[in-house]
Amino acid sequence: MAAGSEINLNDTAAGHVNVLFFGQLKERLKCDKLTVDIAHTLSISAFKHMLVEQNPHWQAWLEERDVLCALNQTMSSSDELVKAGDELAFFPPVTGG
Amino acid sequence: MSISIKVQTMDFSVGEQHGALCSDNKSDGAVVTFTGLVREFSSGDNVIALELEHYPGMTEQLLQSIAEQAQTRWQLARISIIHRVGYLALGEQIVFVGVTSRHRQAAFEGAQFIMDYLKNHATFWKKEHFKDSSNWVEFKQSDKQALNKWKK
Fold first, then answer.
1. Which of A5, B23, B59, B132 is disulfide-compatible with B54, CB 3.0–4.6 A?
2. What NCBIfam families does the annotation carry (chain B) (predicted)?
């Protein structure tokens, strides 16, 4: 559940973002979830780049492959903005059914 | 109109699901159900089981949205979708889609639309397990092409 409604309007966009990984991506990054502190609102692509700077070996999987992204459980494009309290998920193309 | 969405590890009974779609239903003359079974995915390479992962919360919302889209396109009174997750052996039931309608064509098309959208949009990921190894299933272009017939 997104905690967006809990953000104090007088506050800045600083706070933490919950990040989730699924499927093959989770396995390759050896990470299923993490909490990232951000100082201000930033785009999903900038957020991904920040993750890669912190974990350089993630680049091949997060930035160079076809990775889908959901912001607060809605499919999103890389120019959408992430703010504190958001849930951001990255995953490969789906293969259910 | 009713929509039932379930993502579960448990198996399901097609008979019970069919019964629920028919029960106390005097308006619909057509019931269409589809059941998907675990099969060998890779070119016949001894798959012994599938492992299904999903995004809890988002998956259920997406399935609900797919069912609602189907109801805006066809007169589908009842829709039931069940998708299993976890470890599933060959031959086990993996997915169920059941719909009711006044007429058969709407029921056939509605069920097919739901399956095509589920395969392309619902947040499930499959991993094949072999005797000594495992492999994530890649997205299939043929599944994407199956969507084209529903685009206007």
1. B59
2. PRK10678.1 (NF007959)
Please check whether residue B152 lies inside any domain of the structure.
no
Say how many CB pairs under 8 Å bridge A and B: 69
Reading the block at residue A35, the tokens are 């909490």
- Whether A8 has a pLDDT exceeding 80, the answer reads no
Q: Please tell me the class of the A15-83 domain.
A: alpha beta
ipTM score: 0.90
- Asked if B123 and A92 come within 8 Å (Cβ–Cβ), the reply is no
- Asked whether residue B149 is assigned to any structural domain, the reply reads no
Which of chain A's residues have a Cβ under 8 Å away from the Cβ of B119? 94-97
The pLDDT > 70 percentage for chain B reads 96
pLDDT at B152 over 80: no
CATH number (domain holding residue B27): 3.90.1170.40
Radius of gyration of chain A measured on its C-alpha atoms? 13
How many other CB atoms are found less than 10 A from the CB of residue B122? 26
Domain range for B124: 2-143
